[in-house]
Amino acid sequence: AQKITQTQPGMFVQEKEAVTLDCTYDTSDPSYGLFWYKQPSSGEMIFLIYQGSYDQQNATEGRYSLNFQKARKSANLVISASQLGDSAMYFCAMRVIYNFNKFYFGSGTKLNVKP
Amino acid sequence: EAQVTQNPRYLITVTGKKLTVTCSQNMNHEYMSWYRQDPGLGLRQIYYSMNVEVTDKGDVPEGYKVSRKEKRNFPLILESPSPNQTSLYFCASSARAANTEAFFGQGTRLTVV
Is pLDDT at B98 greater than 80 in this prediction? Predict the structure, then answer.
């Protein structure tokens, strides 16, 4: 069975500091993708970053990077130089090759950036 | 602009009054889904569709119906809404590949009183 676990319901970070949001996953499928989404208070879901299971390097997108440790089944999101606008809910998600129809989501982490 | 359009954004209704939430995408995606978001539970899939006239249940389908008569549209129907269907609903579309993200609509905040 597929599962995404986010163990940090809420986190605080000081503006301009880096923060790591944890995500662990479970799947027996050999090929899968891992995604992070941001949900600001306005409610929309914003795609941030993607990591493929066969990718050798960690994905990066601007201030976002994904710390992918395949053996540990973890896909942590790192936000560098936090900004006030980073305050939001963050969801980790997974999609597997044998079940394209579905994205499996974690319960989310609420990040608050303090000035 | 690639987008998923969902309407309405906000809806307050009474128990038992049928309602439809519309969803349309302009990316020619095969896959479309409906999710509901509840605090502490993340997003859970209600129904999905792999193509026109092909739909199937997700994890929490009870009390919902869907249809896919055209590739771009995937409406969610609540025949007899109940208060436990009060939630934030998202329509999403995606291409048929594990390395492609889901595109989400703006969300519909539904309250059933």
Answer: no
